[in-house]
Design a protein that fits this description.
This protein is of the alpha+beta class. It has two domains: about 5-155, Fructose-1,6-Bisphosphatase, subunit A, domain 1 (Fructose-1,6-Bisphosphatase, Chain A, domain 1); about 160-270, 3-Layer(aba) Sandwich (D-Maltodextrin-Binding Protein, domain 2), CATH 3.40.190.80. About 30% of the residues lie in helices and about 20% in strands. The strands form three sheets. A seven-stranded mixed sheet has the order 1-2-3-4-5-6-7. The protein has a three-stranded antiparallel sheet with strand order 10-12-11, with helices on one face. Strand 8, helix 5 (about 175-190) and strand 9 (about 190-195) form a beta-alpha-beta unit. Helix 1 runs antiparallel to helix 2 (about 45-65) and helix 6 (about 200-205) packs parallel to helix 7 (about 220-235). It is globular. The protein starts with 8 loop residues before the first helix and ends in a 16-residue tail after the last strand.
């Protein structure tokens, strides 16, 4: 069946950006209030912000594409028996970077992706505090737009292993990643390391500020889908540790495998993993 041209990812993109910006406004209304929170609970400002963004996004997407299901972090308990029939669906993280929200460092995002046949074909990331937006649709390139500014195309940079820049989490550094970085340093010299929260680590690769983001810890599919689309449209790749592209909604679990975000599509980053013998 041929897809209605009005439903093509590039055509949907402006409306999805508007929806993400509305969710960002809902988050900011709570973020700028006085609050003190250490964890996510049913009545915390963090939960209120998450749910306010979720409701805004779901309402907007259901109006935009009533026939396309929405899978959000806040509605994730949809059994695979039901999801398995979805060829096309929205995958949403209403507030990515809960630790950054709590720390008030501004590094949290709204993430919206359109998935077709297990791959992201549209991705929008909005940073509520700054208004910065990254977006892409398959075949149309990737873009960065400052609040009130014009959209600028972004592109990954050529790989130079002697001047490697690695992006990583502020809050998820474990022994496996430490071992990976050590092996990388042994072969190529110590890389520059940039710490960043949320899906913004992907964006560092997409816009050529970093070469690699290795994630050797737990994430969920809504954490990565929008950003994967943006990285791929900018010329990069997001793969599991077997160097195969991440795929979505293929099983009951919505957890991702460990993965690499790379500006270079050919370099095999798995060679720096510390393999454990069974």
């Amino acid at each position: 069946m041929t897809q209605d041209s009005s439903q093509a990812p590039a055509v949907l993109l402006p409306a999805v950006i508007d929806i993400a910006r509305e969710a960002a406004r809902r988050i900011l209304a709570i973020y700028h209030s006085d609050f003190a929170v250490q964890a996510k609970d049913d009545k915390s400002p963090l939960t209120e912000a998450d749910m306010a963004a979720h409701r805004a996004i779901v309402a907007g997407l259901e109006t935009l594409t009533p026939e396309v299901p929405v899978l959000s972090e806040e509605s994730a308990a949809i059994p695979f028996a039901q999801r398995a029939a979805w060829r096309r669906y929205w995958l949403v993280d209403p507030l990515d970077g809960t630790k950054e929200f709590i720390k008030r460092n501004g590094e949290f995002t709204v993430n919206i992706a359109l998935i077709e046949d297990h791959a992201p074909v549209l991705g929008v990331i909005v940073v509520p505090v700054s208004g910065l937006c990254y977006y892409a649709a398959r075949g149309e390139g990737a873009f960065r737009q400052e609040a009130g500014g014009n959209a600028q195309p972004i592109r990954v940079r050529p790989l130079d292993l002697s001047r490697l820049v690695v992006a990583g989490s502020r809050s998820h550094v474990g022994p496996e990643l430490e071992g990976f970085l050590q092996r990388l340093a042994e072969r190529h010299g110590a890389p520059e390391f940039i710490s960043m929260g949320s899906s913004l680590k992907f964006c560092l690769v997409a816009e050529g500020r970093a070469d690699l983001y290795p994630r050797l810890g737990p994430t969920s599919e809504w954490d990565t889908a929008a950003a994967q689309c943006i990285v791929e449209a900018a010329g990069g790749i997001v793969t599991d540790t077997a160097m195969q592209p991440l795929r979505y909604n293929t099983r009951e679990s919505l957890l991702n495998p460990h993965f690499f975000v790379s500006g270079d599509r050919a370099h095999d980053w798995s060679q720096y993993l510390v393999r454990t013998e069974c």
